[in-house]
Amino acid sequence: MELILISNTKLKIMLNENDMQRYKIGSESDCAEPDTRRAIRSLLDCAREQIGFNTEGEEIFVQLYTSKKGGCELFVTKCQENALCEEGAERLAKSAMASYEGRYPSRQHDLERASATTVKERKTTSTTHAKKERIAFSFPDCASLLKVCRILDRSDFRADSRAFADDGGNYYLLLTKTGTSAYARLDRLSFIVEYGKRENPDCLVSYIYEHGKVICNRNAIETLAQF
Question: Which of 15, 59, 64, 140 would suit a FRET pair with 2, their CA atoms being 20 to 30 Å apart?
Answer without folding.
Answer: 59
